Amino acid sequence: MATFTRDEHIFRDEDMLRDDYQPDSITARESELSSYQTALQPVINGAQPRNIFLYGKTGVGKTAVSRYILEQLQYDSNQYDDVSLSVFWLNCTNLSSSYQVAVNLVNTLRPDDDQISTTGYPQQRVFDLLYSELDAIGGTVLIVLDEIDHIGNDDEILYEIPRARSNGYLTETKPGVIGISNDFGFRDDLSPKVKDTLCEEEIHFSPYNAPELEAILERRAEGALYEDATESGVLSLCAAIAAQDSGSARQALDLLYQAGELARAAKREQINEDDVHAARNKLERSQVEHGMRELTRHGHLSLVAVLHLALESAGPFRVRDIYPRYRTIAEQSDIDPLVRRRMHDHLADLAMLGILDRHSRNEGRSGGQYYEYEFAVDLDLVANVVSDFEGLILPRRVVELTQSIE
User: Which of 16, 107, 311, 377 allows an S-S link to 224, with CB 3.0 to 4.6 Å?
Assistant: First the structure.
């Protein structure tokens, strides 16, 4: 008897629920598609492309809509002999400066055996190499910079590329930039000259509502799941949970996929609402765990300090109680501790991530106003993550807890 056999229930094509799947049609983004099409019309007319800035939360369709409309644009441009269109994508998640973006763009345009080093060049030299590569392509070139907010305040590249032709750096190529950002505040932080150049056309992607998310799930489920793979109400529940939380299609799809995984593991033929609730808990736990691991060193120290207190007594705890523990753990770990105010900022970050609950207290003239903190997640989950922190000398009670759950 075979150990592995193909699924005959639940998943028909589970890849259709994954993050990298590109649908062949777009649901619930008609207005954004219309605005996008209008902004891209100059390309088909053979004119200088407009620069476009897209912004909205993660999972609201910015990248999927961009890939869809740009594929349509490339296909339709083939019918015009006087239009030569090239589109290049660069994800800026791990890039923190215009220099790094420029280097990676040069390497995106060059063959694999002719890449340049990521360091060692003056910035203007890298820009010159970029202009040379762009002019060699000719025609219209659209550069899509996804997650562009990661470059922070170093936004010179967002001025250089759109203005390269008018500044005489390009003669054969008409460049256009499409910037995609999850950070609503990034546009406001751009320098005035960049804002005027990059944000010629702005498209805002608002969070999806529950009916829109349900429509997206129904469209995906048609191909991803077998018929009758879900009990009544499962898709609407996934949509409602995601709409109330983030308005993210990604979250709704993840819920459905994880619920399907649970049903498959239980060898059931249908996904039920209990699977969805269990999937939600699993995803939330995974998200919180990831958030703890991604903290800075002082964020880790602050987390361990609160955990140490929580193992001794029930919270909540004031900053005046947490700070001495933080300072002791830092000094024992040979790390210079921050001042109390800066450590408090890390506690606020932990609350923002949903790891701690923060309560405001006001005792009037006698006690003043202050914050108290307590864990919003299981201590076992915190201890499991803390056990992997390198370079920290953990208090004995914390070590005992981490050993007890191994």
Answer: 16
